[in-house]
Every structure is written in structure tokens, then in C-alpha cells.
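Extended Data, record Aminotransferase
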Amino acid sequence: MRDDNSASVISTESLLDIAALRADTPGAEQVVHFNNAGCGLLAAPVLAAMVEHLQLEASIGGYEAAAARAEQVRGFYTELAALINCAPGNIAFAGSATHAFSTALSAIPFEAGDVILTTRNDFISNQIAFLSLGKRLGVRVVHAPDLPEGGVDVAAMARLMREHRPRLVAATHIPTNSGLVQPVAEIGRHCRELGLLYLVDACQSVGQYPIDVAEIGCDLLTATCRKFLRGPRGSGFLYVSDRVLREGYEPLFIDMYGARWVAPDRYQPVETAARFEDWEFPYAIVLGCAAAARYARQVGMDAIARRTPALAAGLRDRLAGLPGVRVLDRGRRLGALVTFAVDGWEAEPFKAAMDARRINSALSFRHFAQFDFGDKDVDWCLRLSPHYYNTEQEVDQVVEAVADLVTGRRAP
């Protein structure tokens, strides 16, 4: 699927040109980067967009540089909107996915006794935010049960929707602590049938899978740009549906960018998702995010969604065959996060041993995922997350490194 505006990294047969992708990725020859669920390696056009803007700020001034690049800044909204199938006015920039999530929560007028219905695998910061609302406002948090094979039981969640009529339904599309992909569109269908407000955390899925907010049926969606989208750190976004805007939801601490002070005792929120933004922007980062979204779309989200989970599946299968390794991912559908526990090692020494082999990875701990890790009876795991620009040879290298470590040494 190629047109004249497509990137050169896609062939006429819609196969990824891995060599070209890696040539566009300065870090690809420096490390084996299997920590894309933490931060993806920046592509050269993303880096260039940011550096060029910082140079312009240094040359002519920050305000003046923002004015000179106003059209490119608007590209952030058009690119992100095209990526998730909405209008530019439904997109708000945020400093992180957690910033976007907390800002969205602040717009909901919770009262004592209101219910938040969520899953046992929602992201740690989201779970803490829900508990904080319970502590401060008396909101109740209800967790839908999991299926025996892993992942939320959507039928049970739907029954809880009808029973509790929650003020908010929330689900994390891909939890940070495992390869599970939750059926967010199925949840969304039940929310639409019952008219319930629905918030989706797509932090790990944007840039890994095609995301269509109309298909998901969510009212709000949050994500970062630094992970599989391969944008800069300190960036994220919030999708706000027309329904939410029309019904007047606004953040608790709306500022001069999101509202107009129309009388001494009255303000008026702006009509778009900009009501969820602040006046100050890191413009170089905004431009980097726009470049990252544009790059992902040029590479092709369908092609990315085929290759990235396939690399992870091969890695997962091979790790599962190693003695002393326990792969932890469970669920009907698994994405590009591969988590496993190892016998005879503590967390930090094992990761340090992987680091010494120039293999980037991440650790997860029980306090990141109280339900999931409690069910699996593990205190920590290593997380590996390949992306489309990684190679099969790198998978071989990672598997060999893990095999060497788990068979060659046990912790004293």
C-alpha cells in the first residue's frame, strides 16, 4: 500500500525495508534495543525536527520560533488525528500519558459513592489515581475478573456495568507488566450500549497497532509518544470525543489556553480539546512528536502491526524453551511485550548482565502489578520489547544471552 508520498522504507509489496529503517535509526547499530515499551529509538527525522527547532529558538527567540513554525506545530494535531482516526480538534498535547490521564480524570465530576469500573491489569499509575479518588472523594473502585487464560472477562465486566452503572469505565489496552492485549473494542461496545463514559489507556499500543477511536468506542484515550511511536520523552496526548466536548467536560485546573476569561466572574472553555492543554508548550518536543507520527504512518501501521508482535512471538516461544526461564505472558492475544522470570537471579544483577551485553531491557516488580504478579507468584520479571526495526538476528542474540546467563550462573 504505497503512494507517491510514502516513505522509502516501504516496498511496493508493502514489505518493510529493514535496512532502510535501521539506517534511519542512529541507535540501531549501537545497542540491541529491546526496550521499546520504555522508549523507542528516535528515527532521524524526529531528531532533526527537534534539533532544528532548538537551533531556531537559540537564533531568534522562543516566542518568535513558535510563531515561525506555527504551521508545523499544527501538524502535531493533524498527524496524531490521522493516526487514531479523529479530527485534529479532538487531540490535546500532554507532557506524558499519565499527565493526560490525570487531566482527563480531573474533568469528571466524581461524587461519593460513584463507581470506577476497571480491570485487574490497568497501569499502576492509573490504579493509584483511582485509589486516590477513593481516598479523597469516596469513589469506589471495582475490578472486573480475568478469564482463566488471562485477560479481562468482558461478559463479567458487562454485568458489572449493568449492576453498578459506573461513573467511569477504564481499561489499559496493553498493560506495562505483560504482553497481554485487552479487548478494548469489546468493552467499548458495552459502554456505548449503556451510555457509560469510557477511558482507554493506549500508552503501549499507539505505534504498535492501528488505533481507531471510533472502532474502540472510547470517550477519552491517552497515550505517550516516547514508546512504540518512537517520539521524544516528555510527550503524550489526550483524545477527547465530540460527546465529551459537547457535554462540557473540562479539566479541574483549566488555564488561559483552554479557556477565555470573558467577565470578572466567568470564563468560557474553548470548543476543542485544547481546553485540556496548558499555555506553555515544549515546541521542539511537539514537532518531534509530529515527525514521529508522520514517520509511523509512512512506514505503515498495518505492516508494523504484523512485524512487531511476530518478532515478540518468536522471542517468547524461544525463551519458553530455556531451562530456568518462566514466560509470564498470558491472554488470548499477545503483543510485543515479552516478560519472563528466571531462576537463581535477583532483578538488578540480571538486568546489569544484559546491559553488559549491550541489550536494552526493563524490569517490572510486584508493586507495578499487584494483581497480576500476585496471581503469577513472582516478585520481578525482565521485560523485552522488540519493534519493527529490530532483526531476527537480534532475537537470536538476545535468546543466546539469556540462555548463557540462566545456565551459566546462579545467584549465591
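Summary. The chain has a mean pLDDT of 94.
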